Every structure is written in structure tokens, then in C-alpha cells.
Amino acid sequence: MRERTLPLAALLTNGGDDGERKSRVRRFAPWQPTSKSRALLEAVQGILTEYRAYLRLTIRQVFYRLVGVYGYPKTECAYKNLCELLNRARRGGVQRYSG
Question: Pick from 33, 35, 39: which is nearest to 84 by CA?
């Protein structure tokens, strides 16, 4: 049986506080994650494997599981960093996600 991958979609804002829109590379964007990023992605994949029967999980659900089990910081900044990491992993082809 083929293992399902993470069905998350990260919704990120492109604009700053001044309302000016910042440009990003669209679709696939090459990315080489650091060892720290890879370790966090492995923890996320472990959570998804553990909760396979309950998929689709939100990023917020994954975040709170990381906080509770892996000691991930419970701050808004840490949550935003997780969103950005998952977005970069999806767009970089490191992790497959379905919408």
C-alpha cells in the first residue's frame, strides 16, 4: 500500500505592513534545506504518519503536536516559521503535498 503524504497547503501573505506587494518565485522554487530544517520536516512526517487515519490535518494541528511532543516553541513566530518551512518544502519538491 502506498503511503499518503501530507495534504497541507500553506497560505502565506506576500505583502508587508505598508500594503506593498512583494514578488515571489511562482510554482517550483529550488531549495536546499538545512539539517535543522530536514530534522523538523522528519518530525512533521512522523506526526502525519501517526495521524494517517485523521488526515487532512491543518498546519495549526501539526504545530500543536510539535509543541506537545517535540518541544517546539509555542510562539507566533515559530508558527510562521513552520508555515514558511512547509511552503518551501512543498514548492522545492522536498515534500509532496496535495491540496
Answer: 33
Any domain includes 24:
no
* pLDDT on residue 46: 93
Question: Mean pLDDT over all residues of the chain?
Answer: 77
For residue 60, is it within any domain? yes
Q: Which domain holds residue 55?
A: 35-91
Radius of gyration of the chain (CA): 14
Task: At 72, list the grid cell.
Answer: 517546539
Tell which wins on pLDDT, 39 or 13. 39
**Residue 8, domain member (yes or no):** no
Q: Is residue 30 part of a domain?
A: no
Q: How many CB atoms lie within 10 A of CB 47?
A: 20
Q: What is the number of structural domains in the chain?
A: 1
Would you say 92 and 83 are in contact if contact means Cβ atoms under 8 Å apart? no
Closest by CA position to 3, among listed 46, 39, 35, 38: 46
